[in-house]
Amino acid sequence: MMTVSGPAAHMALFALMTTTVIASAQAQDQDPGPLPTHVVDIASKLPLSKPIPTQSSPRVEKLLKKMTLEEKVGQLTQAAGGRSKTLNSKLTPAELDRVRAGRAGSYLHVAGAEPLRELQRVAVEESRLKIPLLFAMDVVHGYRTIFPVPIAISASWDPNDWERTARVSAEEASNSGLHWTFAPMVDIARDPRWGRVVEGAGEDAYLGSIMAAAQVQGYQGQSLSGAGTMMATTKHFGAYGAPLGGRDYGSAEISDRALHEIYLPPFYAAMKAGTGSYMTAFNDVGGQPTTGNADLINGVLRAKWGFDGMLVSDWNAVAELINHGVAASRADAGALAVSAGVDMDMMSLVYADDLTKAVMINPNLVQHVDNAVRNVLTAKERLGLFDNPMAYHDVDMERAEIRSADHIAQARLVAERSMVLLKNDKAALPLTSGAETIAVIGAMATDKQSQLGSWRARGDKTEVVTILEGIKAGAPKGTTIRFAPGAAPQSADESGIAAAVATVQSSDVVLLVIGEDYDLSGEARSRSSLALPQSQKALADAIFAVGKPVIILLTGGRPLAIPDVAEKADAVLMTWLLGNEAGPAVANIIFGRSVPGGKLPIAFPRTTGAVPYSYGEYPAGRPAHPNPVKDSNRFKDLPITQLFPFGHGLSYSAVDITDLTISTPFIDPGDSIDFSVRLTNSGTRPSYETPQLYVRDVVSRQAQPKMMLRGFKRVLLQPGESRTVTFTLSADQLTYYNRDGKWRVEAGRFDVMIGASAEDIRQRGSFQLSRTVESNVPAAAIATQTEVR
Ligand code: BGC
What we know:
With 789 residues, this protein is of the alpha/beta class. Strand 25 and strand 26 form a beta hairpin. Helix 21 (467-474) crosses helix 25.
């Protein structure tokens, strides 16, 4: 039996002696002294899962045969070329030597056609095997032209908006030397205390699946090696969106059914759309960190779903397997991750520094290492890097693409389409009569930085048009605009509120721009309260006390519990954080040049204690009853409805949803069924409506959700116009995840509900499924065909 010495083995010993202090020992760098051999062997005793070989080309196999073990782990290593705020800063001469020695496979936090050309040149000219490098960045909602934050784009309820955002991002980033983006983030979130709710598509598996696929298509286009495209990373595989209490990085304590029915469908939809890679989640599901979870990665993703691309860990997550308490040493962590199916190690350098030791302890690991190298080289091959490693480094193209007029116009359009009109009493919006004095109140109205949101790639705050600038430029002639900042979201200084009140006193109407800034949502930005920040609430209270009409322009990256200010306001427009073109987009909506049509991808609760929540829960034995005196599934101190439910969003006129027709009373396995409704704009302004199709399996031995979204379509209607929307559902969209791992559903009655939100159902009907249906595909990941006539 082999032994090993050095830091890895020291860590192994210490872990075994005092399992509870692994993390602190690491932090304090204690030296545990000489090592008895039985302790060191822990990595060799790991029960390793079987490797799942993926297909590769003769070119990749030939290369693999030539590689030393050091060169192999080099390919599996992703190092940082900088920090996210100081890109390229770590590309030192020493780093170039590392590339020459074949000890790096990929860099993140790098950018620029020219600097990356030089880095690539070193790899393909000066390293022994001349393998090109992969350059990656978090290009999440824009590269230099920044679009709204992801939750906002998903609020457009139109996958085309995501596709166009991803395409523009890829055009800019791929011409700036980047091959690979760490997007889309498809984690379903039902607890808005979780800060990363801003990065996803909200609470629903079906909506999330549609948006996931659209992003992959936008980034990757028709071919990974095509011009203007980049490889997508669907992240964070597992159930990162379900941490306990919404605390970032925490355990997901969810059932196997919830994992498969709620959290995994968007990952499956992304695979069907061709995602080139996945990233594992930081957290664990029921005690198994995904970065070391062979059942999920090799079992579900590769063996069951047939994914044949590449898988990268999250930042330092391989080393963090030690903190999770599932690995005894860095070598052990590396062995666990690579054998679970993690091909590339982002930034922990465990593969680079410790995997060779793990292979010495357990030579069987070599098959896993080879497989991982195969997947990395195949990704490079699919990106066209072996044939043309410099294709991404054309400085003229970079200049032409970055912030082109078309890209800016697209960013403005998506920003307009992302806003959600939550309330609009007595048609307070749009503001159409000129010659008014408008008070714009709130520090968020001039906050450029915040509009860029979380993950701004190369976004530049000086290129942001603020809400105030947009309103000033876009107000009808004769309007006077007065501004006072009042108070900023994270500031304790409320001394500006008095001046804001004075400004309001001499104005006709108030645009109150309040909410969260960019730094209150995002990674490691979970919050225990969903209330407005204190300064924003104080400002709002002071402004309402003046008694003028108030329109709230709400900012931020998550649902907020704002029952009292929403009650007092005449209108509430959720503006999220809208990117470069925030100002013009807001102005177009509030002055009526564009029409709001967004819908909430996640409910807004009445209070923090009401989360987590979803419209799609299982029915209770004592269903929630409006009368609090009855013993039912509700909070005694809250109404049973949400403040603003999932799917809610108004437009400038009311649109009727009528005349449900169902094509057949019975559906057989393999068949489909059509549901049609008529939409009529009964108002005087153009308007959007997004009819939403929900189904419910009425009786099943395993309870089924009260409602499941299975279709939606955003439609624009002119005043008086009618259109018919038809949703075509297939029988396998009705299945659920059974204990034996199959998607199945029994015969019986289904209810169908079509409405303007999960709490605003306008049409109801039912149909029968004639026989049991079986399928291999997560039901929520199947897109419903939709037709508008
Ligand atoms: C995040 C990932 C991101 C990575 C690289 C991590 O902290 O969780 O989503 O892709 O950093 O920037």
